[in-house]
Amino acid sequence: QVQLAESGGGWVRPGESLRLSCAASGSTFSRNGMGWFRQAAGKEREFVAAISHGGGITYYADSVKGRFTISRDNAKNAVYVNLEMNNVNVADTGVYYCAADRGPLEFGRSRQTAAYEYWGQGTQVTVSS
Hints:
With 129 residues, this protein is mainly beta. The protein is built from no helices and eleven strands. It has strands spanning 3-7, 10-12, 18-25, 34-39, 46-51, 58-60, 68-74, 79-85, 94-101, 116-119, 123-127. Strands 2, 4, 5, 6, 9, 10 and 11 form a seven-stranded mixed β-sheet that branches.
């Protein structure tokens, strides 16, 4: 059974840091790109970051570049994908979703929600003072 489970969300003040984690199991995700998306209230889900199957290539939305870092660990029975969020601001508020790409990471395609086959339930991140 495929399962993606996010954790680490919560409330933080502007300028602080937060680390999100995702555990993906039930399939051979070690061969696929992985991504993080977010959705603010009343808005569409948007791309945040993606990482190649080996972890050597990463892509970021312009709004988070230089502040967020995506990483992954391809363990034996699961793939762990982390999102380190630094210097957060109010615009970073939303539900953050971990997702497994249908295939290898591709620059344009992997920024689209349609590229991802499996999704987690999401974890809420709230940035406010």
